[in-house]
Amino acid sequence: MTRTEVCENMKKKTIFVLPVICLLILIQIIIVDSPPYSITDPIDDVRHYQNTTLVSTGDFHDEIDIKEFIVNSLDMIMVFDDIPLYLTDYIYVMTVFWDGDSNSDNYTYAQFSGGTINQVGTYLFDSQGLPVVLNITPGAITTIGDTLKTRIPSFALIQDILNPQYVSVHASYIEIAGQNYYTDNLTDGDPISGTPTNGSPGYQFGIVISGICVLVIVGVYLTRKK
After folding, report:
1. Would strands 166-176 and 66-71 be described as parallel, antiparallel, or unpaired?
2. pTM for the complete prediction?
3. Helices and strands in the chain, H and E counts
4. What confidence tens digit (pLDDT) does each residue in 116-162 have?
5. Do residues 25 and 209 make contact, with C-beta atoms less than 8 angstroms apart?
6. pLDDT tens for residues 30-53?
7. What residues have CB less than 8 Å from 80, skipping those under 6 apart?
8. Which residues have a Cβ under 8 Å from the Cβ of 141 and sit 6 or more positions away?
9. Helix, strand, or coil (residue 43)
């Protein structure tokens, strides 16, 4: 085999080896998602009502006193000042609209209340108003310490999941129906609720590295062709 043939074989092998090396590099990379969406709420702001009249606001029933609401790439999470209770007189609700506002068709709704209701559903529609996803999952909400956590049904089909357009969550304790109850609400856009922190779209480092690898491979190939 001549020296020229040896060089040509080396060039061909290099072209095939480089993609393999890049893939091996990618395997070693830890994929890091963008930070989650979250909105915080001050503690000791539970409202006490009697006959629909606000009596006072303060340190009542820490188990419904919301501290934070979080949406990550998979889950919705409510954080409280104490352990939430799955009992008859308690109601916990999470509602997230994925585009538009509270009139949007695309949303996820979760309810954990009364010791009997535990379900979460995602409802997605196309531009014609036809249903694309109607996914209701019973028993999906769990209590973990001072939090309520649920997997978002059909999370992979929600566009820009880390940037919800409208959020409304609330927790209530009903001591006497219609006469004496306590509630805490957290709504994105309400100045009282604090400032929301939106996660940017979930781009990952692996995508960037892949692009760099492609450029390297093309560059080497073009150089070898000269």
Report:
1. unpaired
2. 0.71
3. 2, 13
4. 999 999 999 888 888 889 999 999 999 999 999 999 999 999 988 99
5. yes
6. 444 578 999 999 999 999 999 889
7. 62, 63, 64, 65, 66, 67, 146, 147, 148, 171
8. 92, 110, 112, 118, 119, 120, 148, 149, 150
9. coil
